[in-house]
């Protein structure tokens, strides 16, 4: 069940989370210096190895069963969202010619590949979801954000994309029926991200066409952007031109600059 909170409850919760994060940070530093001096297992000190294994189970539990965190109060309609990052956005003019291309089977030779092409109109006709979530940038700011569009899991279910057998995805199917990674790219190829499939299936992960009650502006990534609130903002690619699936981790702009690829909050 999703918990609705009033503003005072949300502030108290945020303060507690902040203190907990501080404590976790201190323990993390102490723990890391201990862990890094332990014996190696396949080149990785063993405490980190087992943490990695425990993490895998943790993420599957968090994302795999569709659990939702607390929802902050929705911002007033029309609230201006902060703008951050404009790589891949220097497109001017009408969105009439915009199309979303999805490559279903990227590992095949280009000539032998099935591409699906979507107009904005087709995306508007898929089941729509609206939700509010705290949006966090790695630079240290955050804000509650309402956004509307198609859940990525609903997009897969509606199109039959993302599964190895081309049959529509549904939560009753094993995760292994899906490709492990999703890549997203701006129309000009300048900004690109990749994500694990579990995070893409989270019920708050949306291909968004509107934010805070208004259609997306160009600077926020019109006509279609990703919102993935279980990750830092760097993963929420604005102006999606192409989506593809893969079993090997696709390129990621900020991971190439040395940022943590997983980018979990
Ligand atoms: N195409 C594109 N998408 C992008 C970026 C960018 O530079 N180009 N920046 C990212 C970063 S770092 C953040 S925090 C969010 C900010 O989204 P906003 O401008 O809607 O607040 O967009 C993300 N998506
Ligand atoms: Mo960011």
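^ Assign residues to that structure.
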């Amino acid at each position: 069940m999703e918990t609705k909170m009033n503003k005072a409850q949300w502030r108290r919760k945020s303060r507690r989370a902040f203190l907990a994060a501080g404590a976790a940070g201190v323990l993390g530093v102490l723990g890391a210096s201990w862990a890094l001096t332990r014996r190696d297992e396949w080149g990785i000190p063993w405490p980190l190895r087992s943490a990695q294994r425990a993490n895998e189970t943790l993420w599957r539990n968090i994302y795999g069963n569709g659990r939702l965190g607390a929802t902050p109060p929705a911002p007033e309609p029309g609230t201006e969202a902060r703008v951050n990052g404009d790589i891949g956005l220097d497109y001017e003019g009408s969105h009439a010619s915009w199309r979303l291309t999805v490559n279903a089977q990227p590992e095949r030779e280009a000539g032998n590949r099935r591409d699906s092409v979507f107009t904005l109109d087709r995306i508007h006709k898929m089941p729509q979801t609206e939700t509010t979530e705290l949006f966090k940038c790695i630079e240290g700011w955050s804000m509650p954000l309402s956004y509307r569009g198609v859940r990525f899991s609903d997009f897969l279910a509606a199109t039959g994309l993302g599964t190895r057998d081309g049959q529509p995805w549904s939560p009753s199917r094993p995760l292994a029926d899906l490709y492990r990674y999703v890549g997203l790219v701006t129309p000009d190829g300048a900004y690109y991200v990749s994500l694990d499939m579990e995070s893409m299936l989270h019920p708050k992960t949306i291909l968004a066409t509107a934010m805070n009650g208004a259609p997306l502006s160009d600077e926020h990534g019109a006509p279609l952007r990703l919102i993935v609130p279980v990750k830092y903002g760097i993963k929420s690619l604005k102006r999606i031109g192409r989506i593809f699936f893969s079993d090997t981790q696709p390129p990621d702009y900020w991971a190439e600059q040395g940022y943590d690829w997983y980018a979990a909050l």
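Residues 36-46 have pLDDT under 50 and may be disordered.
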